[in-house]
Amino acid sequence: MQSSTHHSTQQRRAWLIGLLGICLLVLNSLFLQVRSAIYYDDTTDLSASYAAAQLKSVQNDGVYSLERLQQQAAGQVHGRVRPYLYPPWFAEALSVFAGTDYVTFRIGWSLFSHLCLAALFLVTLALVKQLAGRLTVTDSLLCIAGFALFAPIERELFYGQVSLLLAVLIYLAVALYPARRDTLSGALVEAAAMFKVYPVLLLAFFLANRRYLALAGCGIFITIVTGLSVYNFGTADWSEFFHLHAGGALLEQAYSRSPAQFMSVPNHGPSHLIYLHGIALHRPVDAASALWLGRLLVVAAGLLFLWYLRSTLWPQRHTFEALVTVLAWMLLISPVLWNHVFVFLLPALILLLARALQADSPGPDLWLLLAAAVTLALADYSTNISQFNHSALVLLKPLKLYGLLSLLLYVARRIRRGDTLAFEPSRVQA
After folding, report:
1. Does residue 255 register a pLDDT over 70?
2. 48-105 pLDDT, tens per residue?
3. Rounded CA separation 285/192 (Å)
4. What are the residue boundaries of the structural domains of the chain, listed by start?
5. Which residues touch 284 (CB under 8 Å, ≥6 apart)?
């Protein structure tokens, strides 16, 4: 009886500290908003979304015309307006706020982003309790530290991106996995993929575990959203969206680079690593060659990863480590590896660290996981190193790539040994 009471007290303390953590995150974010008000540059995706929403409120198409966006934003947005990169339905949804001025719109989006941040924090705590079996004070403190120190969150909030919203959708789908709410999980994954395509790879985890209703949920959601969009606004913008994205023209307009330069130089992925090695060794590699060599490197790494886990990956497909593997490869093969997208990995890192710290003897693998967590948390600061620095220091720029590789190596070692967190323990083979 005393043991049960003690356990309940510990749980209450852990959740109380978690709620306190949300309050601290909000205070930290208030400081960020003051900084944003002073230093904010309107040349972001948010200003483009605002202009697209304004345009959708007065006509059915034209959001992918940079000239029309700039005309619509004239006098309201300070700074250069980039091309609108998201699907038409997002601008259509935002058009209900077209009557507000840009400052009000930015404040509203900031409040929504903070709501997503708090939701992601709570979902992370719930996942730790669900998969590790308990929630301790140490887990709550670890969660607070992770959210406070993870630099990609600051970048996400400062520039008004959508990665926090996508992370909430993804981890809600994960939290529903043990309850077998697969149709809803599939719909949540597709909701994230309707912003950026690569989250749809998370369906591979569901399909590998024969959760085919997730695919049905995905299909239902995309049918409803695109159907409503086409019914109300027509197909012109959807046709333009697929046409421009297929050829990389939108990315070239947005960042004044060719698709090859855009995907190899600024994203700090495998192609960028090859490009930087060329600079450090005084043997420059052109962007197009770096792009193709990077793709070959990813394919080779994928084959090596599968070979290493050839006899253990399929039996361990029900585990949280298998899910983290999908998330890490989802980012590794993404053509755009901006710092803010790494908020997708923060809950996973916290849960893996919480589980490792609960072990009686964490072992040397803990250092590999810590290296991945610290490297990804600090990756944002490596952008201050000039890519034209002709020294070995330039090789520190793709820190996020090193962090991803460390994380993949960690989960591969856990899967190989069968020392994993199971969503469905009875189904995991020894």
Report:
1. no
2. 888 888 888 888 888 888 788 888 777 777 767 778 888 899 999 998 888 888 888 8
3. 35
4. 2-39+101-427, 40-100
5. 278
CA distances from 153 to 29, 173, 175, 333 (A): 10, 21, 21, 21
* Location of structure tokens 């709501």: 115
Angstrom distance (rounded) from CA 18 to CA 22: 7
Q: Are 285 and 293 in contact (CB under 8 A)?
A: yes
Alpha-carbon gap, residue 1 to 7, rounded angstroms: 10
For the chain, the residue count is 430
What angle, 0 to 180 degrees and rounded to 10, lies between the N-to-C axes of helices 163-175 and 346-358?
50
Q: Which single residue is written with the structure tokens 């307006």? A: 81
CA dist 128 → 140, 209, 278, 377, 428 (Å): 9, 22, 43, 20, 19
Cβ neighbours of residue 333 under 8 Å, at least 6 residues apart?
Answer: 198, 201, 298
Distance of CA 218 to the CA centre of its chain: 19
Radius of gyration over alpha carbons of the chain, in Å? 22
Tokens representing 176 are: 């529903």
Strand ranges, E, within 20-161: none
The answer to whether the beta carbons of residues 285 and 120 sit under 8 Å apart is: no
Name the amino acid, one letter, at 272: H
Q: Is the pTM of this model over 0.70?
A: yes
Nearest to 328 by CA among 376, 390, 370, 364: 376
**CA–CA separation, 38 and 364 (whole Å):** 45
SS3 212: coil
Taking only the tens place, the pLDDT of each residue in 268-319 is 577 777 777 776 667 777 767 777 777 788 888 888 888 888 888 888 888 8
The per-residue pLDDT of the chain, averaged, comes to: 78
Q: Give a three-class secondary structure readout of 4-30.
A: HHHHHHHHHHHHHHHHHHHHHHHHHHH
Task: Give the tokens for residue 141.
Answer: 């403190």
What is the distance of C-alpha 192 from the center of its chain? Answer: 10
CA-CA distance, 167 to 342, in Å (whole number)? Answer: 9
- DSSP 8-state symbol, 422: B
Q: With contact defined as beta carbons under 8 Å apart, do 90 and 195 qualify? A: yes
